Amino acid sequence: MLKTLIVVKNETSHDQQSYELEVQSNTRVGYPDYPRGVVVAKIIKPNIPVRNGVVHLIGNPLIVNKKTVYQLLEQNPNLRQFSNLINSNRRDIQLFDVSDLSLFVPNNEAFKAINQVRYSMILNTPEKLVQMLKLHIVSGKVNSETIFQDPRKSFVTWDQKRKLHFTATTQNITVVGGGVNATIVTADIIAKNGYIHVINKVLGIPSNTIYEMLKSQHGLSSTFRLGTQRGYNNQFIGMEKQFTYFVPHNEAWDKVRSQFPSEYAKLFQGEHTYQVEKILDRHLIVNQAFSLAQLEKMKKSSDAPWYFSGL
Q1: For residue 89, is pLDDT > 70?
Q2: pTM for the full model?
Q3: How far are the Cα atoms of 38, 42, 129, 196, 209 from residue 95, in angstroms, in the given order?
């Protein structure tokens, strides 16, 4: 038996000045000729009153798409920015004849929210631009059901260097790539050769400061809580300095609590703020931002131990 969920979504602009309405038909239970997935249509004219109900005019039928992932990307105006970048780099990114693939595509509003200075630098560096785009593409048909079955599973992206990691809850799915956490705002847009998932951030181009990241991610709440002592977190609010921060996840602090319960309690109850500051200092490099690859390269370049004055 076919089961479909109809949802109306409001796509509000980054500046809150405009919005578009779209309707999504989400097939939860399907059959071979009508597989599970989402079909999206723009609401062209809403709220037309008639004697026996109401009519909303939409831009395309809510039927299973026989179009490819690339064709769906091309026809969706909310994904125009990413689509234009893909088209301008066709020589390095071929989506036309790929049998199975899945795209995690930032919507237009995501591009408005990123650091424009860093984005301009990437646009002017073709190699980095291609790497950034490939970070949003994985081989195979990956839908939300695949992610929910094994939320800890990661997928190698088309740049062959980085992976996408996921966190799934009953409310949403978060995808992590290139140091950026994005939420899937529309999942499982189905095409004949794969899926498109619309996300709210551009992967690989950080839009948050360290302070915002620590404050917003549940899994980092323990480190953020420690950093509230002596105003340690305040140094991460602005953009004046660069940092490399090795942040313990909540699970790491849970291990400390189980092994050293009394010491853990003293740290988190604010009885030893000076010691907390020095402990956090051991995780921090100040005035320099290093990727893991850069740190590995630096270590391999010398047999002698190395350190940073800002540590």
Answers
A1: yes
A2: 0.66
A3: 20, 24, 16, 12, 33
